[in-house]
Fold:
Amino acid sequence: MNNKNLFDFFGDFILEDVIENKINNNEFKKYCITIYDHWLNEFEAQEFILSYCEILDGDYKLDEYIEYENKYFSFFNRIFQSSEIFTFDYDYDLTKEVNLIKSKKKLGEILQDCLREKRFYNFVIPELEVIILGNYDLSLPVFMKALNVRIQEMIKEAGLYLLK
Structure:
């Protein structure tokens, strides 16, 4: 799918800094892909939310974080095997280009930067009508036009959860 078709499908919101607000005004519904099986209450959030910065500060074990991170790699690799994934970075890219991820290696590099909070990328999967935003704390907002059964299955197979 070329950039023109991508823009036709998702509209110009993928170029906006206010992406989340613009998507919410369309027919997309917001969900969250996370390592947690429920929405955390305030106490749980303070106690359990994992951030890569906390790993660097020595508050958590790196191997625990890597275990969770690998679930996201598994999920995105499942998508990559069957669908095109485009990415864009609305914080850093001055040209606001949407780029096709052409290799698993590149996907891994981009995803690792995103999960480790170095640079937040957003992922567009036109075939599945899904947009996944980079975010903190191993919880990624996901927008879908309809609750997508294929995405739900891939999330579950990777050991992640989809919260509504």
